[in-house]
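Hi R.,

As promised on Friday, here is the backbone we talked about, encoded as structure tokens. Could you run it through your design pipeline when you get a chance and send me back a sequence?
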């Protein structure tokens, strides 16, 4: 939780591609992410309403009882004051944990806004999907196994005219109708690591100089890829 606030983990080239897609073209309908790490929140040019966190996000906090969203910075401060550090690395942490109360309903039920096992997905997922899917003309599937429902069913529900691009190290979603055959007319397989693939795409689109503006905010692995590409003069 505290590492999320401190941005110990950073948005990658793949995250920045989505941000640039919105910023440069205005054609991004929505980013649906199954990750709970909240890294997309570091993409400040990507409006929050453009992102649906299917399984919630560690970058937000809410009351499990009444659903009221809490201020994330205040929640992190409460975590430091109230929650025991089981790793024993923080000498200022309390010896025992106490609940974090909700300012609205007063229950000690404020936690990261992530979906717990057997809990319902956010209503936003179903509402946005119903709004978005009928009008999609390109669906980009990034680094997912396509085995977790209901998010994986988005690939089935897009219109038959919608192109589908899968970015992964191996074929996924065959059981959902993704066609990897040579005769496929709507599905394109971009085999490789996500950062590699999207760096290539960014270069082809002429957005490398835009990506370079985020260089100091990239994780080391992404920055290394970018520096190598710059040295190649591509």
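Update: got your reply. Pasting your designed sequence below so it's all in one thread:
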């Amino acid at each position: 939780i505290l590492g999320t606030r401190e941005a110990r983990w950073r948005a990658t080239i793949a995250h920045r591609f989505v941000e640039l897609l919105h910023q440069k073209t205005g054609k991004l309908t929505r980013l649906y992410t199954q990750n709970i790490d909240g890294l997309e929140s570091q993409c400040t040019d990507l409006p929050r309403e453009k992102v649906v966190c299917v399984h919630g996000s560690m970058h937000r906090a809410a009351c499990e009882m009444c659903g009221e969203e809490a201020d994330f910075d205040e929640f992190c401060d409460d975590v430091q004051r109230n929650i025991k550090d089981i790793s024993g690395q923080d000498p200022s942490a309390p010896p025992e944990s106490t609940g974090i109360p909700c300012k609205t309903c007063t229950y000690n039920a404020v936690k990261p806004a992530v979906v717990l096992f057997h809990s319902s997905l956010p209503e936003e997922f179903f509402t946005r999907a119903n709004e978005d899917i009928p009008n999609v003309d390109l669906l980009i599937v990034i680094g997912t196994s396509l085995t977790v429902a209901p998010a994986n069913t988005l690939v089935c529900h897009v219109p038959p005219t919608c192109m589908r691009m899968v970015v992964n190290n191996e074929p996924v979603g065959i059981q959902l109708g993704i066609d990897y055959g040579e005769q496929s007319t709507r599905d394109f397989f971009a085999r490789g690591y996500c950062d590699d693939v999207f760096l290539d795409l960014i270069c082809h689109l002429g957005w490398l100089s835009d990506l370079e503006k985020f260089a100091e905010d990239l994780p080391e692995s992404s920055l290394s890829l970018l520096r190598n590409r710059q040295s190649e003069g591509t």
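One thing I noticed while checking it: The two ends are 38 Å apart (CA to CA).

Thanks again,
M.
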